[in-house]
Structure to design on (317 residues):
């Protein structure tokens, strides 16, 4: 079995600011920049560790399996789609700054034998956290490469034992309009919800992410826990999840309710099926000047194409 991603098992106790710093330093090295430049651009509390760390740099969190360099911490945390806070990507981070992410529970139920409500800290201790460097391709035709930490969604689903009637998985974001002013907007059917077919949800590429760049996830990226489904357009990767429900029927999704003809249930990344209002053939990688071609299934076809055997990929949007 070939794994497309660098899967580095890490225990949460091992995730330190220093590791995160080293990852960023590796990135700067890969980008041909000096240590001084790395210091100036490194974000967060890690700069104090700068003089250490010649020993045991992580093998490299610097590129994905295709050789794409990871985006900077700064890029990943300052350009966000999170409509609960704002429709302006640059405004999300400041508005999400004081969002309460603890305590936090995730209710897992529906068509399962063992429904259970988990505290996020339970999930962190039950399931070993792995680093997964994934491309994120937004339906708006921009993309990033992001070093998540998290665990396979399948591990959690197996624990609650879905019944044979469970055919889909439905996810729901927290509804907290006092803290999330965007939820006051009548244009969207809050709370945000998303869904996957159960075999998609069981695919090893689908993870629940709790961290990014080796650090605890920041609110703008969907803290404390969010879905990441890297072969689908970014809006499937729902943030700040409080509920996961196994169901028999295909669930509604926020974007499909808003515009059925533009945002389908499957929404697999596909350069050959244009959005009604723009081409999906290419994308703008944040931090790069020229566009690059978009890959079918965002480059993860080897792992996921079999899920869609016999389906007409031009219709499934
Ligand atoms: N709850 C919720 N989840 C969401 C969104 C949102 O507005 N609300 N935006 C989606 C979109 S369109 C994208 S591209 C990704 C962006 O994730 P990032 O900001 O961590 O890069 O989150 C997705 N998950
Ligand atoms: Mo998106």
């Amino acid at each position: 079995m070939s794994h497309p991603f660098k899967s580095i098992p890490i225990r949460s106790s091992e995730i330190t600011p220093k590791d995160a710093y080293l990852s960023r330093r590796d990135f700067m090295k890969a980008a041909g920049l000096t240590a001084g430049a790395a210091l100036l651009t490194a974000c967060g509390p890690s700069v104090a560790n700068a003089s250490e760390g010649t020993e045991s740099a992580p093998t490299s969190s610097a590129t994905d399996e295709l050789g794409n360099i990871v985006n900077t911490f700064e890029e990943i945390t300052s350009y966000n789609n999170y409509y609960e806070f704002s429709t302006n990507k640059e405004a999300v981070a400041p508005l999400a700054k004081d969002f309460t992410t603890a305590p936090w529970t995730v209710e897992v139920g529906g068509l399962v034998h063992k429904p259970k409500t988990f505290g996020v800290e339970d999930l962190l201790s039950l399931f070993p956290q792995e680093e997964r460097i994934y491309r994120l391709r937004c339906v708006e035709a921009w993309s990033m490469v992001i070093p998540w930490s998290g665990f396979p969604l399948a591990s959690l689903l197996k624990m609650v034992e879905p019944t044979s009637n469970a055919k889909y998985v439905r996810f729901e974001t927290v509804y907290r309009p006092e803290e999330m002013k965007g939820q006051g907007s009548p244009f969207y059917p809050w709370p945000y919800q998303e869904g996957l077919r159960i075999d998609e949800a069981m695919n090893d590429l689908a993870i629940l992410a709790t961290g990014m760049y080796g650090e605890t996830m920041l609110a703008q990226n969907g803290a404390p826990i969010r879905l990441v489904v890297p072969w689908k357009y970014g809006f499937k990767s729902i943030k700040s999840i409080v509920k996961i429900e196994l169901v028999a029927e295909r669930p509604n999704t926020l974007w499909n309710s808003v515009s059925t003809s533009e945002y389908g249930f499957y929404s697999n990344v596909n350069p050959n099926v244009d959005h009604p209002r723009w081409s999906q053939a290419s994308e703008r990688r944040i931090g790069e000047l020229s566009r690059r071609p978009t890959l079918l299934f965002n480059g993860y076809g080897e792992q996921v194409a079999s899920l869609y055997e016999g389906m007409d990929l031009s219709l499934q949007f």
Summary: Residues 18-315 form a domain with the Sulfite Oxidase; Chain A, domain 2 fold (CATH 3.90.420.10). Residues 17-30 form the longest helix (14 residues).
